[in-house]
Write a structure and sequence with these properties.
Elements (H helix, E strand, L loop, with lengths): L2 H29 E5 L13 E6 L23 E5 L7 E8 L4 E5 L2 E4 L2 E2 L25 E6 L4 E5 L9 H4 L2 E2 L3 E11 L5 H4 L3 H18 L7 E2 L2
Antiparallel strand pairs: 1-2, 2-11, 3-4, 3-11, 4-9, 5-6, 5-8, 6-7, 9-10, 11-12
């Protein structure tokens, strides 16, 4: 085998690897991204250990040309992944409840949009609503607002209303922080919150060992390829 042939083969492999990496980065940045659920704030619809695919293309960047690209505006009830405004390096997942320009209020755990009650069949409560006379003004799980959602921002909440750190606590979500819409569960692994609480090499190795050891017994097979609504 000639040296020129060897160089040509190595060059072809190198170019293929470079192209594959570029495509992978493009897909992850603009098209789809994997995301895992580390907390119970979206139960019972999304469980700790659910691994999702997030459609990053559907909303597109603000101001993008929708006449050419298959994009749409953010709608109420969309489940979105976004950069947590208080710590943009962290990703959160919540459901869009209030849209720009709307007035939102929470009364005895019931959401009202522009004075009208919102139908929310997906909501989960750990405790029933309290008697209105017993609710303190500071318990945002029971009472909140009314507030007007500013233009270019959204009010988001977790489906597990009594266990969700959402817009009731940290405010409105800017449009530019939204990364994409939750699309589907590609894998679900029965886990506890503690398994995702730790970061670092040791915690990652522990999680990998758990998956290798219990893959078949702790995989939630019935949730695989489940569409997210």
């Amino acid at each position: 085998m000639s040296k020129e042939f060897k160089k040509s083969t190595v060059r072809e492999y190198f170019e293929s690897i470079v192209i594959a990496v570029i495509l992978a980065l493009f897909v992850r940045t603009w098209v789809v991204q994997a995301f895992k659920i580390p907390t119970g704030s979206m139960e019972n619809n999304l469980l700790i250990g659910d691994h999702l695919l997030v459609n990053k293309f559907v909303f597109g960047p603000a101001g993008a040309e929708r006449a050419v690209l298959p994009m749409r505006d953010i709608r109420r009830h969309d489940i979105v992944v976004f950069k947590y405004p208080n710590e943009p390096q962290r990703d959160f997942i919540k459901r869009v409840i209030g849209l720009p320009g709307e007035t939102l209020e929470l009364r005895n755990k019931k959401v009202y949009i522009n004075g009208e009650p919102l139908d929310e069949p997906y909501v989960h409560f750990l405790e029933p609503a309290s008697d209105s006379q017993e609710v303190t003004p500071f318990d945002v799980r029971e009472r909140y607002g009314p507030v007007r959602v500013p233009e270019g921002q959204y009010f988001v909440m977790g489906d597990n209303r009594d266990n969700s750190q959402d817009s009731r606590y940290w405010g409105f979500l800017p449009r530019g922080y939204v990364k994409g819409k939750a699309l589907m569960i590609y894998w679900s692994y029965e886990s506890g919150r503690a398994e995702y609480a730790e970061d670092g090499v040791g915690a990652t190795v522990q999680r990998l060992l758990s998956v290798v050891t219990h893959f078949f017994t702790r995989t939630r097979w019935e949730r695989i390829l489940h569409q997210i609504h």
